[in-house]
Design a protein that fits this description.
By secondary structure, the protein is an alpha+beta fold. The protein has 4 helices and 8 strands, in the order βααβαβββββαβ.
Length: 147
């Protein structure tokens, strides 16, 4: 944030190709001046990337999931949702996308399911038993021989 970067240095720090940085400059990323080498101030780069991330957000309203294939919030197919608990208080809501059929997931607290998915049929499945709750395995030991 308090440093200045060349195009190559910024690309290396962010883990992107230098052509991506050049594309961002054409899209409006502020640079120090029009001289060579191109210098980008770290604070301005951070602010520009934060603004770009906020513009790309697609918040999900109640009753919707984010479909990664369609890249928009979608309602679950047939209004059916499955809840798989991860622990006593939270778990994953699972549904199919109405348009493409892709599996969609949404993390939720058990008490907030009705607020997140109002007026939908929610099937709550039991959590997988943990390894501690299983019966102990039988011991494999030889019988002692009477001498």
């Amino acid at each position: 944030m308090h440093r200045s970067y060349s195009v190559e240095e910024a690309a290396l720090k962010l883990g992107v190709h230098k052509n991506s940085i050049r594309g961002w400059i054409k899209a409006g990323l502020p640079i120090l001046d029009n001289s060579r080498p191109i210098i980008i101030l770290g604070g301005e780069l951070k602010a520009w990337l934060d603004k770009k991330r906020k513009a790309a957000k697609r918040p999900c309203s109640p009753g919707t999931f984010y479909c990664f294939k369609c890249r928009t919030p979608k309602a679950p197919a047939l209004g059916m949702v499955e809840y798989k608990p991860m622990n006593n208080t939270s778990g994953n809501l699972i549904a199919l996308c109405t348009d493409c059929g892709t599996m969609m997931y949404r993390r939720a607290r058990k008490q907030a399911i009705e607020a997140i998915m109002p007026n939908l049929a929610i099937q709550i499945t039991e959590a997988e038993p943990s390894i501690i709750e299983r019966t102990p395995p039988p011991l494999n030991c030889d019988k002692m021989k009477d001498t």
